[in-house]
């Protein structure tokens, strides 16, 4: 039994070998043109592989899908902090140029960069399950802690706003997005760990009913065909 990934990997390896063979043939052509007094004045044609298409017929013999892996909390925490720093906090400035909040928000973002918000695995799981409340409450509390570490004058500027009322809906919106991303990362990791066993040999496929066969058409574009690689006389120079 063969894994589908191994078959596709072998096909791609053959494509690379074809490219290497074409390059070797081109190198020999360059030498031949240089050695011929007539051909030396002509440009050397380049042998190249532009497109290669392979159509593979196979029969799926076994599909093994593992249990979903744990959520990637480290990756989610990194994304969560970037979102708060580069999206949520800057939105406080929208339409408020007269309040002079730029420096205060800038320092708040820098404080978050130095001391990122911690992300609890259980809170992330609950967000993925549809309840983003714990994740938002935790993030909001930690954001306000970072704010209290700023100079009092900057805090006073930001206290002109109803920070909790303004930040909470923004955090809920972004928490929903983070939960969806986490689900996608988890599903992608699960797919990468899955295994598809296939039959690809002709004698085995002949024994299968045609409607049970699967087909993959793989097209690889390596390089556009180049007509010339430059005059041989220029190469010699």
UniProtKB/TrEMBL annotation:
This is Uncharacterized protein.
């Amino acid at each position: 039994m063969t894994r589908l990934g191994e078959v596709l990997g072998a096909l791609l390896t053959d494509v690379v070998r074809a490219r290497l063979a074409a390059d070797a043939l081109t190198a020999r052509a360059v030498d031949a043109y240089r050695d011929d007094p007539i051909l030396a004045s002509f440009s050397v044609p380049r042998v190249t592989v532009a497109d290669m298409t392979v159509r593979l017929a196979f029969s799926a013999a076994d599909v093994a899908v593992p249990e979903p892996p744990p959520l990637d909390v480290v990756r989610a925490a990194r994304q969560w902090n970037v979102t708060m720093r580069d999206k949520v906090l800057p939105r406080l400035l929208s339409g408020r140029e007269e309040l002079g909040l730029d420096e205060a928000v800038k320092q708040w973002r820098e404080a978050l960069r130095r001391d990122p918000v911690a992300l609890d695995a259980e809170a992330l799981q609950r967000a993925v399950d549809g309840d983003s409340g714990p994740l938002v409450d935790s993030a909001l509390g930690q954001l306000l802690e970072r704010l209290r570490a700023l100079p009092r004058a900057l805090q006073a500027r930001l206290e002109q706003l109803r920070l909790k009322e303004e930040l909470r809906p923004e955090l809920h919106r972004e928490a929903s997005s983070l939960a969806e991303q986490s689900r996608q990362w988890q599903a992608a990791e699960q797919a990468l760990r899955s295994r598809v066993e296939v039959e690809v040999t002709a004698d085995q496929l002949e024994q299968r009913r045609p409607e049970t066969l699967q087909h993959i058409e793989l097209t690889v574009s390596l390089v556009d065909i180049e007509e010339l690689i430059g005059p041989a006389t220029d190469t010699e120079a």
